[in-house]
Amino acid sequence: MVDEQPGNFKKAPPDRGASSFIYPPTPANLDFFAEALKAGHVVAIPTETVYGLAAVATDEAACRSVFAIKGRPLIDPLIVHVHSLDMASEHAETPPELEKLARFFWPGPLTVVLRKKPSIPDIVTAGKDTVAIRMPRHPATQALLERIGGPLAAPSANPFGYVSPSLPRHVADSFGSKVPFILDGGPCEIGLESTILDLAGRGPARILRPGAISREALSTVLKRTVEAPLPKGEREGATGLIAPGGFASHYSPRARMDLFPQGNRPAYVQGSAILFLSRPEKGDSKNVFWLSEDGNPQSMGRNLFALLRKLDTAGFTRIHCELPDAGSEGIHLAIRDRLLRAAAR
Ligand code: TXA
Ligand code: MG
To answer: Most buried of 106, 189, 311, 334 (most Cβ within 10 A)?
Structure first.
């Protein structure tokens, strides 16, 4: 849970009841959401990483609506969320290494790319023969998956290219009546999207997107080398199309983002916001913000997206943001990845 206000903003009113579309996860509401999903509707669900825009993964038409609502290109596949390892095995080839990973990291913020089985429609995987699978640990979404008895395909619940949602209100703010059912799971515990690990290739296991679960932790459990994400240029296929997961510009606020090296201070530019990783010594100016009070990486991760959205709403047109060092690991690396993408226009 969020234990602090994103740096330098006044305490916000409680989120509950902020929109008539946001429903608390009571048993009756969970029944309602499960029925709506089974009837082919798209709803927003909480996870420990970010909110997702969910449809039943085996329902091709509903999954197509997810792409349409998000404005997401059909070449960018969706993540499939499961309730159990058995459910994962129904829809993907699950090698023994997946069981090892599941024992340590599931339910949790790890997505694994596996060979797909025919039950998952091509629209979900963008025609690829692999599927990205994860078991989320948010109790409301676990309860929903259990009621449905099948998997949910869900990308992050933000318009394509914009900052991901870490509060139910973010979903309502972006989509309004286009997404009239949002299941309230409170603020996201992690606030950054899951680590994606590719186990489907014949080569070494490779991280496709860094998240809270580090390469070192994965490598320790697998007892083999796990490769870092490929640099941007090498993610683009021979066709010139950007490979899935490799869109450079992503997570961008409307404000222009300028990054400065960790430990530095940017020259002040009139009207800009300055965003530090930790509270700076002199931080009382109205345009100075920070992701954590004390350098705690969990707080930084939890606050990043909410703070970028707040700076947009506050009307800043330019944000100078401190970039974690190259060579960072875990959450710092995930923040570095998101900031580099947010700044790439
Ligand atoms: O934490 C998360 O992963 C959140 C929550 C809602 O679960 N979901 C999420 O989904 O971040 P999305 O769609 O915003 O990002 C999924 C990424 C995309 O970059 C997509 O290209 C990649 O996963 N992906 C999906 N299927 C893939 C596949 N078969 N092979 C490679 N990359 C894949
Ligand atoms: Mg996303």
So the answer is: 334
